[in-house]
């Protein structure tokens, strides 16, 4: 499964404190060892349900430990039996773009 999530403190009022908290969440993802990609808006993690959700939970806890309030947005692509989709989904779109 792929899970894209965004977690951030709310009410912090300072860009530096937001980026510091987000960095703590990304650190959790990187230390998980799961395939992942971080962009300006979301981090996407690939793996089995329990391991991915554990990473999302721990990343959220890392942010929550720095803020009295936390925002979490989650989107999942649940497709049993498929791995490597973090890159494959993008590759398939790129193939269609190259057909023109």
Characteristic terms for this protein:
100 residues; 4-stranded antiparallel beta sheet; 48% helix
Q: What's the gist of this structure?
A:
This protein is an alpha+beta fold and 100 residues long.
Could you tell me the strand content as a percent range? 15-25%
The radius of gyration over CA amounts to 15 Å
Query: Mean pLDDT, rounded to whole units?
Result: 93
Profile the largest sheet: 4 strands, antiparallel
Spans with pLDDT under 50 lasting ≥5 residues? none
> What would you call the structural class?
alpha+beta
Distance between the termini: 31 Å
Total number of helices: 3
Order of neighbouring strands in the sheet with most strands: 2-3-1-4
The coarse overall form would be globular
Q: What's the number of extended β-strand segments?
A: 4
Order of helices and strands: EHEEHEH
Oligomer: single chain
- Helix residue percentage: 40-55%
